Amino acid sequence: MSWLVTGGAGYIGAHIVRALATDGLTPVVLDDLSSGVASFVPDGVAFVRGSILNRELVESALRDHDVTGVIHVAGYKYAGVSVQRPLHTYEQNVDGTRVVLAAMAAANVTNLVFSSSAAVYGTPDVPLVTEDLPKRPASPYGESKLIGEWLIRDQGIATAGTEHPLRHTSLRYFNVVGSGDPSVYDVSPHNLFPIVFEKLIAGEVPRINGDDYDTPDGTNVRDYVHVADIASAHVVAARRLAAGEPVEPAYNLGSQNGLSVKEIMTAVARVTGVDFAPEIGPRRSGDPDRIVATGDLAARDLDWRMRYTVDEMVRSGWDARRAATAPA
Fold this sequence. Notes:
By secondary structure, the chain is of the alpha/beta class. It has 2 domains: 2-176 and 226-252, NAD(P)-binding Rossmann-like Domain (Rossmann fold), CATH 3.40.50.720; 177-223 and 255-292 and 306-324, UDP-galactose 4-epimerase, domain 1. The protein is built from 10 helices and 14 strands. The chain has helices at 11-22, 55-64, 79-82, 86-107, 140-159, 192-201, 227-242, 261-272, 296-302, 310-324; strands at residues 2-6, 26-31, 46-49, 67-72, 111-115, 167-172, 175-177, 207-209, 221-222, 224-226, 250-252, 259-260, 279-281, 290-291. A 7-stranded parallel beta sheet has the order 3-2-1-4-5-6-11, with helices on both faces. It has a 3-stranded mixed beta sheet with strand order 12-9-14. Strands 7-10 form a two-stranded parallel sheet. Helix 1 (11-22) links the parallel strand 1 (2-6) and strand 2. It is globular and about 60 Å long. The two termini are 36 Å apart.
């Protein structure tokens, strides 16, 4: 049973590829390497280099590898930058998803796990985000992910009752951290962990953006979830779809409790052995005090749970990042 992973050479996608293989499934990677890394694709895994915007290429990959389903991870994932690049964001995330759906329909591939985002909720004013909360995305990125969910929903409705009905689910998550393989690390220039790690490697002091929020220690509280747990949930969702088992339209992969930025910084200092006191900068516009999601539905259906402590999250990410620059 083979699954096409779009964006399979990226940080999250590469972990999903490994989780599929570990679970006895056959991953196929499609990635244009615009942000992915070729070396993240394991030896022996089929790799189709190209864009999800290329309908012919996507359809050929589905047919050539006798694909059972698609785990659609590829996309432009920088929420802040999406404000300056809305057209690019919509092209990659909305039109890209449309093309994937069209190629799937042409190739009669009927199972889809969509890597969505908690950005679809915007800045909710509730302590715990549940799947039925109103969607008010606050960036073109969040909007593009929500539209992607709508496209998938509508294609599911349109094909219901046909010979090849689309079965699908969307997984929404917040801050993905750590590493499940020392050869794969987070390369994003915008995520907290890699920002802090790069500062430490350069001998500089990391910064906290604001310490006067309405939280116990004054810094933002967010979900931080280990990438291996995220990958595992994608694989369970894929198996449920392929087996015809019921799934929800969307699941939050949340931590239930969250961690503050200051707690992350303290853990980084503790785990790395680098004694630092983070600088305190001004708030970033639009940053809410707290966004934390419940993962109750995913725990029920996708074996979702937090398997890693904050120290284990930091240690795995730090070790993988340092391994990337270690002498051969």
